[in-house]
Amino acid sequence: MPADYVHGYSSYESVRLHDQASTLADLLHCDSLFQPGSYVLEAGCGVGAQTVILASKNPDSRFLSVDISVRSLAQAKRLIAARSIANVEFAKADIFRLPYPAESFDHVFVCFVLEHLADPRKALLSLKRVLKDDGTITAIEGDHGSAYFHPDSPAARKAIQCLVDIQAEAGGDSLIGRRLYPLLIEAGFSNVCVSPRMVYADASRPAMVQGFTRNTFTAMVKGVRQAAIAKGLIDAKTWAAGIRGLERTARGDGTFCYTFFKAVGRK
Which of 140, 174, 182, 204 has its CA 20 to 30 A from that of 196? Predict the structure, then answer.
């Protein structure tokens, strides 16, 4: 994750990332499969929430998982060791200045990272450099503008917009999911295919309500409360109403929808 990661590096955020990964594992990674013997670069591995899923699904591939945060790398290493996963190595590295020779990897995987970068196209070009000719890249991103829910709540939408605005001020783009296709094309990848992956949660899917509506999305919005109020983006009363509105969608008659985008391209 980038040094100015908008959600922070707290233990609260680490738990949220693991909840998100486990809840969405089937939705996002049912087809995250690599040829046996592949050497895969995971760029921006964070606390290892995605790493453990990828490495477990691909025991015959080797992974080099890199991140700029030493603290996150330490957490990722502990997680992989605790699961006795032996096909992952870790290294501290900056996506924009990768210290690896050209054409080093068969595949590059980047998930929930481009949204935090001021220049995602430049990052993709850097990743492309270390990818072998005819190698492939997978990029997964969300899009906060895709969130809709019942009952509707203007205050909840304002709270979500605070997160969008704060991330934009930090140089990121929380609406980047809808941009993956043009971004990969502009970076020179071919055969780009983007598949939207919709999360839908209602009372008939209690695990998704708990894992995504409560523990992933609402928790993510809650995390920017202090910054949103301090920046004057929203007042405390409206913020509280917005969080109540999001929490209301997790009750028996509520529903919540959100779309992730998974893009695959070839060098």
Answer: 204
Closest Cα partner for 247 from 201, 205, 194? 201
Look up residue 205 and give its amino acid. R
**Overall pTM > 0.85:** yes
Residues forming beta bridges with residue 63, ordered by sequence position: 40, 88
Segment 84-111, tens digit of pLDDT: 999 999 999 999 999 999 999 999 999 9
Encoded tokens for 159: 């709270």
Count other C-beta atoms under 10 Å from residue 199's C-beta: 23
SS3 196: strand
pLDDT digits over 31-89, tens only?
999 999 999 999 999 999 999 999 999 999 999 999 999 999 999 999 999 999 999 99
What the chain holds in terms of domains, given with CATH numbers, is 11-266 (3.40.50.150)
CA angle 162, 172, 170 (to 5 degrees): 70
- DSSP codes of every residue in 26-82: HHHHTT----TT-EEEEES-TTSTTHHHHHHH-TTSEEEEEES-HHHHHHHHHHHHH
**36: preceding bond cis by omega (within 30 degrees):** no
Residue written as token pair 């043009």: 182
Report in angstroms the alpha-carbon separations of 48 from 29, 44, 129, 151: 15, 9, 24, 35
